[in-house]
């Protein structure tokens, strides 16, 4: 079966989103990054900013406590539907249903949101992980307008939140290297990273065709 889906998991600040966009453009495939957030928001009838707060991270303890209280109280059960409590769990449920639909459509590059793990059993999917040295990630974040302090904090905190999310919902120590076909150091530059992915994809596809032919 030909590869029709590429998932791109990434360390925060590694440029994974930009690399995915360039990859999609080179292939002429659909990019599911911001578009994915927009579709989740549409299905949950909320704004994108609300969805972004709950993507690839666990809800804080105080929120989980509030949610438990709301579910456990009579008044809470009556008011919860009106409050539209969008949280990690309902975002995750939408993503879990949406990703297979996107994969069936095919010819797409999907950025994060657990896609590499939700679609791990698909034979038409190619999974890529983008990483970079810590200082390179800080440099990229500073170039995007963050202060050095903010960039360093984000590079640590966001990945920790992603790791906690993946561990909770997939029981995997993030990133789970054995789940990826390819891991690329974006410190070499985005263009180089894109070319490496395309070359690996072409070789992998060729090898699979050869293996199928000799059976």
Looking at the structure, the CATH topology is: Rossmann fold
Strand content: 5-15%
Q: Which CATH class?
A: Alpha Beta
| Distance separating the two termini | 14 Å
Overall pLDDT: 88
Order of helices and strands: EHEHHHHHEHEHHEH
Rg over CA atoms: 19 Å
How much helicity do the residues have?
55-70%
Within the largest sheet, what's the order of strands? 2-3-1-4-5
pLDDT under 50 segments (min length 5)? 62-71, 73-83
The CATH architecture assignment turns out to be: 3-Layer(aba) Sandwich
Largest sheet: 5 strands, parallel
Q: Indicate how many domains the architecture comprises.
A: 1
What structural class do the secondary elements suggest? alpha/beta
Describe the structure in your own words:
- This protein has 215 residues and is an alpha/beta fold.
- It has a single domain (5-208), classed as 3-Layer(aba) Sandwich (Rossmann fold), CATH 3.40.50.300.
- It has helices at 16-27, 34-44, 48-52, 61-72, 74-83, 88-105, 115-118, 134-143, 148-170, 190-213; strands at residues 5-10, 30-32, 108-111, 125-131, 182-185.
- Residues 62-71 and 73-83 have low confidence and may be disordered.
- Helix 1 (16-27) crosses helix 10 (190-213) and helix 4 packs across helix 5.
- The longest helix is centred in the last third of the chain and has 24 residues, at 190-213.
